[in-house]
Amino acid sequence: MRKKRVLLLSEGFGSGHTQAAHALAAGLRQLNPDIQTRVMELGNFLNPVLGPLIISAYRKTVSKQPKMVGLMYRSNYKKSLNRFMQLALHRMFYTHTSQVISQLKPDLVICTHPVPNAVVSRLKRLGLDMKLCTVITDYDAHGSWVNQEVNNFLVSSSLVKDKLINHGVPESRINVTGIPVHPHFWKTYDKAEIRQQFGLKELPTVLIMGGGWGLMYEDSLLEYMTEWRERVQFIFCVGNNDKVKEKMLANPRFRHENIRVIGFTKEVSKLMDVADVLVTKPGGMTCTEGMSKGIPMLFYEPIPGQEEQNCEYFIQGGFGEMLEKTETVDKWMKMIQQPDISSQYRQALLNKRNEEYNPLTCPKAVLQLLQ
């Protein structure tokens, strides 16, 4: 009997979309090793020259003009990608998408980004007989995700479900599963072993993340935080942003025995276990990983649009707060130096997580779709 095949399509506009695809693929294989999965950033795969150039331009826009990104997000909030745009994308990037699907012969296509979602939807309108599932990777539902050809939407929360219904999606096609996280986030690691692995001290620890692109800007509060470096240990994770890493390492403030500056790592799940608080850009993926670990979160510099919505969701849920003033920094630096209080706070978040989120729900929902 042929093994079930799942093709997961994403794009590189921010690392979270592709991370979600890999996380779901790993979760599926963990639950059922017989399932074959393939993750693809479709534009980069089909057009390896032009695709990265467009993503690079988008990255620069996000870092230099975030307000413009927010304006574009809000102005098209209720709109799907129109037919002309879908046709243009198809001609420029995705003319061979149907060939890729034909060669791989998946039983299910899952999209974790709106663009491949729109392209496969167009192919279905043109006659492609394929079950299409969309995983929304934020705590908001922009209209660009919505296509009537999608058979199932897997969403982060009931709030997103309601927003999709307002966009005209039938309730029967929507499952609230939470955003998938990698199985590494399903378990707890030994803190002593982590400290030994990374050369860390047994001190209150703050993990600061700038997302896959390492967009830390020039946030003065992040620098202010290091005033506590004699009593608190800091791990700055700047992703693939080598320029930020070099700049930080050239600054005497960050060259301290209790400050670590690291680039891209696959060990974020371990670092979250050894940390007492997470300071992060509020990407949907990172926030969900933080929630899965029950780690309190402080959010800084949300990009207008979906990151603002992510912030609002987690703040209202009690999982974090905005980092907007020095008093907030001081409050948390003092709290994590009180082990009993810090431990109680984290246990409360783990209890809340158990009520609201189960990392197995999303891959289990996909397994049901494959039956």
UniProtKB/TrEMBL annotation:
Domain Glycosyl transferase family 28 C-terminal span(s) in chain numbering: 205-330
Keywords assigned: Glycosyltransferase, Transferase
SUPFAM superfamilies recorded: UDP-Glycosyltransferase/glycogen phosphorylase (SSF53756)
InterPro entries referenced in this protein's UniProt entry, alphabetically: Diacylglyc_glucosyltr_N, Glyco_trans_28_C, Glycosyltransf_28_UgtP
Cellular localization per UniProt: Membrane
Key word Amino-acid biosynthesis present: no
Domain Diacylglycerol glucosyltransferase N-terminal: residue ranges: 17-181
Main subcellular location of this protein, as a coarse class: membrane
Family according to the record: Belongs to the glycosyltransferase 28 family.
Classification via PANTHER family: MONOGALACTOSYLDIACYLGLYCEROL SYNTHASE (PTHR43025), MONOGALACTOSYLDIACYLGLYCEROL SYNTHASE 1, CHLOROPLASTIC (PTHR43025:SF3)
This protein's name: UDP-glucuronosyltransferase
